[in-house]
Amino acid sequence: MKLSRKEKIVNQVVLALFALFALVPLLGVVLSSLTPSAENFGGFALPSRLVFSNYADAWARGNFSVYMLSSVIVALSVVALTVLLSVTAGFAFARLRFVGSSVLFYLLLLGLMLPAEAFIIPLYFNLRGVNLTDTYWALILPQTTQSLAFSIFWMRNQFRTFPNEVIEAARLDGARDSQVLWRVLVPSTVAPIMTMALLVFMWTWNEFLLPLVMIVSDARRTAPLGLAFFQGQNTTDYSLLSAAGVLVALPIALLYFALQKKFISGMVGGISTR
User: Could you tell me which residues come within 8 angstroms of residue 141 by beta carbon, excluding any fewer than 6 positions away?
Assistant: First the structure.
């Protein structure tokens, strides 16, 4: 249905308002991070001059080089494990027949409704019993498990919508199940897999509760946890706090802008049979 000129204008105005509501707070944080500390009282104001050294000061004083490295290690490990497990499990649920597959799949979906607060304390004692607390594995394994419910659901839907005739043609050519998965399905679902990986990376990077409970040593703190400790030490220096917040959020923003075409294609386009 073709929109009238008036409807297009209304749509553009509404979208512009939503964009404004989203961007103004972000702009305020960026401007605050560039304001001299002596002039920053926590409100939204234009700085008299731009002080880029706030980022260097926040980076050095907050030990963010260590925290960023920890977040990168954990996030990349979770993404790698989640992609591997969800692709194989999604293929099994979508294309293979085995006893109890439907029941098992719906039990798996319960993970989408279970908040971390419900199991964080028992999980801590379980991991402490096997000496995994205060290690990267105490973050990687639980966050991989948390991500699998959504990721398997996502990949199952992608593989179920793949044209059956293409898969049947591959089987007639002698392709085994593993070959159908890795040579036919996966190359055609790169965009959805990239979308899923970006979402999992974002969720893992922003996770706060799990590192707060599981991690004690400063060397293994993740960026959001390090930011919380940094905030406690610099409660009135709004310029440094804003600069630290920008530093922690910057990797996610850069990653999204670098992969936005794949992300949008995976969200709206799905599989590609070309």
Answer: 132
Query: 3-state DSSP call for residue 96?
Result: coil
Cα angle value 35/37/42 (rounded, 5°): 75
Question: CA torsion sign, 37 to 40 to 42 to 45?
Answer: negative
Can you tell me the distance from the alpha carbon of 274 to that of 268, in angstroms, rounded to the nearest whole number?
Answer: 17
Cβ proximity of 106 and 192 under 8 Å: no
Q: How many CA atoms lie within 13 A of 250 on its CB side?
A: 14
Minimal CA–CA distance to 146: which of 125, 166, 175, 118?
Answer: 118
Q: What is the structure's pLDDT at 223?
A: 95
Q: Are 119 and 110 in contact (CB under 8 A)?
A: no
Structure tokens at 174: 């002698």
Query: Domains along the chain?
Result: 63-268 (1.10.3720.10)
∠ CA 75-108-196 to the nearest 5 degrees?
35
Q: Distance of alpha carbon 65 from its chain centroid, rounded?
A: 20
The whole-number mean pLDDT for each consecutive block of 10 residues of the chain, a chain of 274 residues, reads: 73 86 85 85 77 91 93 97 95 88 85 82 93 95 93 92 88 88 90 92 94 93 93 83 92 86 70 50
Q: How far apart are CA 146 and CA 144, in angstroms?
A: 5
What is the spatial distance between Cα 111 and Cα 102, in angstroms, rounded to a whole number? 15
Rounded distance between C-alpha atoms, residue 189 and residue 272, angstroms: 6
Question: What's the farthest any 2 CA atoms get from each other in the chain?
Answer: 73
Which residue has tokens 């790698």?
Answer: 80
